[in-house]
Amino acid sequence: MSSNKSAPQQLTDRLFATERNPEDFRFDASVARVFPDMIRRSVPGYTTIIPMIEVITEQYVQSGSNCYDLGCSLGASTLAMRHGIPYADCALVGVDNSSAMIERCEHYIALDDHELPITLRCEDILTTELSRASVTTLNFTLQFVPPEQRLALLKRIADATLPGGVLILSEKIRFESEPEQDTQTRLHHEFKRANGYSDLEISQKRAAIEKVLIPETLAVHRERLNSAGFDQVLVWYQCFNFVSILAIKSQ
Ligand code: GEK
C-alpha cells in the first residue's frame, strides 16, 4: 500500500457537460478523478447510506470473521465498514476491478486514521475469493453486473456468509408501474438538477450508462436474495428510485 498521505485532488464532475460522442460508461481514470463529486450529486441518499453502513456493520460484525466491500471504488463504504468494526481480529477486504479506482482508494485509506488493516484486491467480484463473512457490502455495484450473473454472485456471497451475517445491498431500482417509474425518474433528475447538473449532462450521462447499469424491481431483488440463501430481506432506506436492502442469514 502507498505511504503517500497527500489527499487526492477533489474535482467537480464535468464529464458530460459538453456535447460528446455516445460511448458506454466505464470506470476509468477520468471517472475515478471526479468520483466522490459524481456519486454524491447523482445518487439520492448516498451521503446518508455511507454513515449507516458503519452503524449496520457494528450491529452484525462477528469477531474473527471477514468483511467484504464488493465494488469499493474509492473506499467510502470500505472506510464506513472499517469504523464499524470493533474487533482487531477481523479482516476487511475491498474489491474493485478498476485499477484507476483501486490506486486512488489506496490514498484515501492511507489518510484514514483507523488501525484495522484493509486489503485491496483489483479483481472481479464474480470470482474473488469469499469465506467466513459476517458483513458484505454491495453499495451500488450489483447494478453493473450482467443480470444473468447476479444470482450466482449472490449465492456465492450467501454461501460464504456465517450464520447471523448480512449483506448490505444498495441499488438503483425500476418500478413495475409505468406512472411510478416516470415520476421517480423525474424526481431523480430534479435531484441532479438541484445539484447543478444541466439537462445536457443528465441526458448524455443517461445515454452512456443505460447499457451498463441495469436496474431491476424490488420484487426481483427480494426473490433472488431469498433464493440465494438469505432468510430475511428488508428495505432499510429508500429515496426515489434508490434503495438499500439488508439481507440477513439466520443464526
Ligand atoms: C461507494 N461502493 O462509494 N468486479 C469488481 N468491481 C466492479 C465490477 C466487477 N464485476 N463491476 C463494477 N465494479 C462504492 C460505489 S460504484 C457505484 C460503487 C456507481 C465496480 C466499478 O469499477 C465501480 O468502482 C463500482 O463497482 C461501482 O460506496 O458508480 O454508481
Task: Give a written overview of the molecule.
The chain has helices at 29-42, 46-60, 76-84, 99-111, 147-160, 178-194, 199-209, 218-228; strands spanning 66-70, 91-95, 118-121, 133-139, 161-172, 232-239, 242-248. It has 251 residues and is of the alpha/beta class. It has a domain at 41-174 and 211-248: Vaccinia Virus protein VP39 (Rossmann fold, 3-Layer(aba) Sandwich), CATH 3.40.50.150. A 7-stranded mixed β-sheet has the order 3-2-1-4-5-7-6, sandwiched between helices. β6 (232-239) and β7 (242-248) form a beta hairpin. It is globular. It binds ligand GEK. The site of ligand GEK has 20 residues, from α3.
What is the CATH C level class of the domain at 41-174 and 211-248, in words? Alpha Beta
| Name of the CATH architecture of the domain at 41-174 and 211-248 | 3-Layer(aba) Sandwich
Average the pLDDT over all residues and give the rounded result: 93
Write out the CATH superfamily name of the domain at 41-174 and 211-248: Vaccinia Virus protein VP39
Reading the helices and strands in chain order gives: HHEHEHEEHEHHHEE
Largest sheet: 7 strands, mixed
Low-pLDDT parts are none
Rg is 18 Å
Compute the number of helices.
Answer: 8
First and last CA, distance: 36 Å
Give the strand content: 15-25%
Quaternary structure type: single chain
CATH fold-level name of the domain at 41-174 and 211-248: Rossmann fold
Shape assignment: globular
Identify every distinct bound molecule in the structure, by name, code or SMILES: ligand GEK
From the helix content, strand content and strand pairing, which structural class follows? alpha/beta
